[in-house]
Every structure is written in structure tokens, then in C-alpha cells.
Amino acid sequence: MSAAAVALQKRLEADSTAYQTLQKEYTKAVESRQRLDSQLQENKLVQDEFKLLKDDANIYKLIGPVLTKQDKAEAVTNVDKRIDFINAEIERVEKQLKDMQEKTEKKRVELVETQTALQQYAAAQQK
Description:
Blueprint (H helix, E strand, L loop, with lengths): L2 H50 L6 E5 L2 E5 L1 H55 L1
Antiparallel strand pairs: 1-2
């Protein structure tokens, strides 16, 4: 095998490894996004439940193994802040996903170009 073929083969392996790494990172980001979406839904349910409660209702918060009484206004504020935080995290992850998608597509194109170059080189050597 010539030096050019070896170089193309090494580039193909490097591109393939990089592509697989990007795909794994993308999968992790998707899982993170799904987790955030689940947390958002849970907190929205809590927010809806708070709207149904009377102002003098007893609200308890689980802190470690202990249920602690909490003021309704404080509880509503905490849930609202949590929802805002989760929405900000979702935005951040969405941007990250978009960037990763672009990088993955770019790397895929590079991988295909390297494969094509290697195939063309092999075909030229057979002639």
C-alpha cells in the first residue's frame, strides 16, 4: 500500500472516530433535553395545582427525610423561578443541539469525501 493510501486510510479512521464521538455527544444532549422537558412538565403541573389551592392552604416541602411547612407565596415563587431556570436551560441545550447537528453534518460530509477519495485511489491503482 502506498503512502497516499495509508494517509487516506488514517484520515478515514480519524474522521470516523470524530464522527462517532460527535454522535455520542449529540445523543447525550438529546437525553438532557428530554430530562429538562420532563422536569418542566412536572413543575407546570405543580404550578397548576397551586392555582387550585386556597391562599390559606397548607403546603409542605420535602427537605431530605422531613416535610417542612411552606408559605404558599414562597412555594409559588420557587416553582416559578424553577420553571424560568428550566426554560433557560432548554434554550441553552437547544442551541447546543443545533451547533452539534451542524458539526456532525460537516464531519459526515468530510467522512464521505475521504471515503470517495480512498475508493477513487483504489480504483486508479487497479487499472
